[in-house]
Design a protein that fits this description.
Jelly Rolls, Lipoxygenase-1, 5-stranded mixed beta sheet, 6-stranded mixed beta sheet, 43% strand, mainly beta
């Protein structure tokens, strides 16, 4: 058998054996009075000597077991900074249980010291409280098998929203992953989405009396009925494609699974990237993964489409309605005599969708927020879908520029320097230019 296949088997074996290549860190006892009880567990932890951008030192991994049986992994991605991490356990039988934490060194054998951690809280989830149902149905995620040992495309945050579906209410879960190894290329991710993370809805449910309808996002972005297994009410899903679509059954799957606590988001009139703003550390993970995977251009050159350090970009949020058009964005600065384009003259890097959306414009290294002088929104004709005629009277109704910001030295989003109602209609070939104030505003 080839050596690389044996190495994969060795890694997978360590993942399902709670103590193999693992050091016991902590045990917390849980006494369950009612069978089927579930809990959200919060820990405070730090992992000195780790950084998501350094190969072999990306983060410390915790392997979590219940009564000696593997339950899930937890990735301590925030380095030496003490941070809060939350996950779900249960349902558990009545009686006494041990919640065990092990330092899993199977992916990072060169780390010299264990993470520091303490259990901050173990909170029961009320089964009789309807408000807790999105937690009781939170999906269990198996990471993609080809990411095992690679710290790639890692789920960082799971959030849920509600949506009216006729007389019913639908709960939709989405996941923010550190990147996507396939699908949209890196340069177009920045131009069309203003990020290199991947944000995907992956599971939803709605209730009709005693019946619960469950669907998920399958490969090729198909919506299929969920027919997989549950643990309690929790569906088990498997990341199955390089652009992070899922399956409800998979024979050859990764044993590494995550049980994050989903957070509620009301994104009415907001972008999905707003969730990243709520968890600003996701920007540093996004950028550091690009560095580690050698996707960053050196030296930085805003004249080329290749991405540079993501602190060189201005991040822009715009709301518009489009009919047969697509938009791209330009910025000029007080220190240069030229415009910098979001699309780098690539028609496939423009934005044709309506609603509120993000984009990013690469700027010369060292550009400061106060250097930005003008924003120009350019409207182009969108090619019609194959087999369809062009849209009559195409136009883009630009409603609002909601935010314009840069990342700080720590990758945290800075204050917005532009927020303005526009209310202009643009025909293809036309543009609107907006002056940017010289000082930032909250």
């Amino acid at each position: 058998m080839p050596l690389h296949i044996l190495q994969v088997f060795a890694v997978l074996y360590t993942l399902i054996q709670p103590q193999a290549h693992s050091d016991a860190l902590l045990t917390r006892n849980i006494t369950v009075s009612q069978a089927g009880s579930e809990y959200r567990v919060k820990i405070l932890a730090r992992a000195a000597g780790t950084s998501w951008e350094i190969e072999g030192h990306e983060c410390a991994m915790l392997k979590i077991a219940i009564d000696g049986r593997y339950d899930q992994h937890l990735f301590l991605v925030r380095g030496s900074q003490e941070a809060e991490y939350e996950f779900l356990v249960g349902p558990l039988d009545a009686g006494d249980h041990s919640l065990q934490f092990f330092w899993d060194r199977s992916w990072t054998p060169d780390l010299t010291g264990p993470p520091e951690m303490r259990v901050a809280d173990v909170v029961p989830i009320g089964h009789s409280d309807p408000a807790q149902e999105p937690l009781l149905r939170a999906p269990i995620i198996h990471i993609r098998k080809d990411t095992v040992g690679r710290f790639s495309d890692l789920p960082l945050v799971v959030y849920w929203e509600t949506e009216k579906a006729g007389s019913q209410s639908k709960v939709i879960y989405s996941v923010i992953l550190s990147n996507e190894d396939g699908g949209t290329n890196t340069e177009r991710l920045m131009a069309r989405w203003g990020r290199t993370t991947d944000i995907e809805w992956f599971y939803e449910y709605s209730k009709n009396g005693e019946l619960t309808e469950e669907t998920y996002q399958a490969p090729k972005h198909k919506t299929l009925h969920f027919q997989g297994k549950h643990e309690g009410k929790h569906p088990v899903l498997y990341d199955a494609t390089v652009n992070n679509n899922f399956l409800d059954t998979l024979e050859d799957y990764s044993q590494v699974r995550l049980r994050p606590v989903p957070v509620f988001e009301d994104l009415s009139g907001l972008t999905r990237e707003t969730v990243m703003d709520r968890f600003p550390w996701t920007y540093s993970i996004m950028a550091q993964e690009m560095t580690r995977e050698i996707k960053i251009e050196h030296p930085a050159d805003p004249n080329t489409p290749a991405i540079s350090d993501q602190r060189n970009y201005a991040y822009l949020e715009v709301c518009a309605e489009q009919r047969g058009t697509e938009l791209y964005f330009e910025l000029d600065t007080r220190t240069t005599a030229r415009w910098f384009r979001s699309d780098h003259a690539d028609p496939k890097a423009r934005i044709e969708r309506s609603g509120c959306f993000r984009t990013a414009v690469e700027l010369p290294q060292g550009t400061r927020p106060e250097d930005l002088r003008r924003l120009r929104i350019q409207c182009s004709p969108a090619p019609p879908p194959e087999g369809q005629p062009p849209v009559p009277s195409p136009r883009a109704d630009i409603r609002e520029v909601k935010r314009l910001f840069l990342l700080g030295a720590d990758y945290v989003p800075g204050r917005s320097i532009l927020s303005r109602q526009i209310n202009r209609s643009l025909k293809p070939g036309r543009s609107v230019t907006i002056e940017i104030p010289g000082t930032g505003t909250p």
